[in-house]
Design a protein that fits this description.
Elements (H helix, E strand, L loop, with lengths): L7 E11 L2 H10 L4 E6 L2 E5 L8 E5 L4 E9 L2 H13 L3 E8 L7 E6 L5 E6 L16 E9 L2 H10 L4 E5 L3 E5 L6 E2 L3 E5 L5 E7 L3 H13 L6 E5 L6 E6 L5 E6 L3 E2 L29 H6 L12
Parallel strand pairs: 1-4, 5-8, 9-13, 14-17
Antiparallel strand pairs: 1-5, 2-3, 3-4, 6-7, 7-8, 9-14, 10-11, 11-13, 12-18, 15-16, 16-17
């Protein structure tokens, strides 16, 4: 069985159902600057410039849905240990470990957490070798933020079943990191206090602040307003611009994500307070727009397995 203390090594991809796959593909390739990695039937798989086979899967759906969030398991044996721990800590196994038949390959396990989120864990999936730096193009996923009607009840599953660590707790969010042997991103998943369990947003790592800013300009040119930003967060220390994309999916360009190790001491809400009138470190941006806040509670997880 698994001997490493790490069960999960990375956040890999998210899978969406959208009413118009062609329109979403055109946006994510022509404006958001991803590239087509593969196709299978009516589903398109989009990659960044990093090694991950794909960051987004877009498949037809009458209404927008989040089908799953995929993380990379630390080993093949970790898939079996995750399956056991998921059940032990209140989740359920939707699909046992088996070879993946969709593009990307590898072996996968699909589970549902105690609050209904569908998570996939893959190991042995294909990786890209052409990962030289590309200006203004997303490299990989930074994090997914998922709403929770009860963060205190939802957090222990990620810590105990998946071996993740709480990095910081603010008044409205619990930031959870995927631990690494040395240091890694401040958070790969966050649970946001809400009255629902929908998607909050998906963040994409850009090469630098210039790329985040130019991306904001490119989005404005394409008719997409910056709904929050530019700014720099407190927890994670990352620069950001937020948008509402196709099918109402909230997406973020980010960079400079703080790298932390096991010596990092989790902050509390008292550690993360802004002066009056500020919502980030820079103090340039106003608060998130009403449109963004509404979009952050519209896309729920699919009721069953889609992949």
């Amino acid at each position: 069985m698994q001997t490493s203390p790490f069960l999960v090594s990375a956040l890999r991809s998210v899978d969406f159902g959208v009413p118009d796959v062609a329109a979403a593909e055109a946006f994510f390739t022509g404006t958001w600057n991803l590239a087509v990695a593969d196709r299978a039937g009516d589903t398109v798989y989009l990659r960044g410039t990093g090694a991950d086979h794909h960051l987004l899967a877009l498949r037809p759906s009458a209404t927008p849905t989040l089908n799953s969030v995929t993380l990379r398991a630390a080993s093949a044996e970790a898939l079996d240990l995750i399956a056991a721990k998921v059940v032990e800590h209140g989740g359920s196994v939707l699909a046992s470990r088996a070879p993946v038949t969709e593009p990307g390959g590898g072996d996968a396990l699909t589970v549902r957490d105690p609050q209904g989120r569908i998570l996939r864990f893959v190991h042995g999936d294909k990786l890209h070798a052409d990962i030289a730096g590309h200006k203004d193009r997303p490299i990989r996923l930074a994090h997914t933020v998922l709403n929770s009607h009860n963060v205190a009840a939802g957090l222990p599953f990620y810590e105990k079943a998946l071996g993740m660590r709480l990095s910081d707790r603010t008044r409205i969010m619990a930031f959870i990191r995927i631990p690494q042997p040395l240091a890694g991103d401040h958070h790969g998943i966050a649970l946001a206090d809400a009255d629902n369990d929908c998607l909050n947003h998906v963040a994409f790592v850009m090469p630098d602040v210039e790329s985040v800013m130019r991306g904001g300009g490119r989005m404005k040119d394409a008719g997409y307003a910056i709904e929050w930003g530019p700014g720099r967060h407190g927890p994670g220390d990352n620069a950001f611009n937020y948008f509402v994309g196709p099918a109402g999916i909230v997406i973020e360009y980010t960079c400079d994500v703080e790298q932390v190790d096991e010596s990092y001491v989790a902050g509390t809400p008292d550690d993360w307070k802004w002066p009056t009138g500020r919502v980030d470190q820079w103090g340039i941006s106003g608060p998130p727009s009403a449109r963004l806040k509404e979009a952050q509670k519209q896309i729920s997880f699919a009721p069953g397995i889609q992949v």
